[in-house]
Amino acid sequence: MKRILIIEDDPYIAELQKDYFGLHDMDADIVHDGNAGLDRALSGEFDLIILDLQLPGANGFDICKQVRAKLDIPVLIVSAKNEEVDKIRGFGLGADDFVTKPFSPSELVARAKAHLARYERYTRERGPEKKPDSEVLQIRGLAIHKAAYRVFVHDREVTLTAKEFEVLLFLSEHPNRVFSKEELFERIWGLESSGEIATVAVHISRIREKIEEDPSNPQYIGTVWGAGYRFTI
To answer: Which of 82, 102, 122 is the last residue of a domain?
Structure first.
């Protein structure tokens, strides 16, 4: 059974989330304080975290940053803060999704299940028992091992999140073609998200920081102003 940590200071919302996860055979614990929530999150006991931003004690942004630095599990922000700058900051700190209150509990569970499935696949494919990947994309100094979810830059492995890897793989498999943020969002995030295309730019920026020698002058993923992004081979 999957274990969910809900860090939410509103008792009604937290219990609602817990009940809906329970209906889908997922066990949820609730913490109402940010500091206590951070301690529980870092315990390693949970498979996914539902995180509010406005909390007593540590705020959601700080929690997200510290969790992402130590754990590779899905983090879903659920918040009444709906300004684009908040969403961009959340994604930039490593959140996997951003759900704005009021929300549909059924949709929240569906998103959580989708992220859990993606992380399970990502972890399984990267596992030490995995056989060597027979399908590798080689683009200049970049090597993308499709099945193993591994990326090497000049023989040095770089660590990408599951979503970052999927963005990079998709673009590299469609070289020299321009994709708008909306197209990438639809292709990569699909039904998991609802129009938060700001996350596309954040993920592109994070990928560049990891694979480009000079992220400000990218050689792989370029920006076509007013149109989108293009992977150059």
So the answer is: 122
Expressed as residue numbers, the domain containing 29 is: 2-122
Phi-psi domain of 154 (left: phi exceeds 0; alpha: psi -120 through 50; beta: other): left
Check whether 176 has a pLDDT greater than 50: yes
CA dihedral 8, 28, 111, 103 (to 10 degrees): -40
pLDDT at 131 over 50: no
| Residues 29 and 85 both lie in one domain | yes
Using one digit for the tens of pLDDT, what is the confidence trace for 186-207? 888 765 555 567 788 889 999 9
Number of domains in the chain: 2
Q: Among 70, 89, 122, which residue terminates a domain?
A: 122
For 150, the token pair is 């591994």
Residues 134 and 113 in one domain: no
| DSSP label at residue 175 | T
pTM of the model: 0.70
Burial of 8 (0-12, 13-18, 19+ CB in 10 A): buried
What are 93-111's pLDDT values in tens digits? 888 888 889 889 999 999 8
Is the distance from CB of 164 to CB of 50 less than 8 angstroms?
no
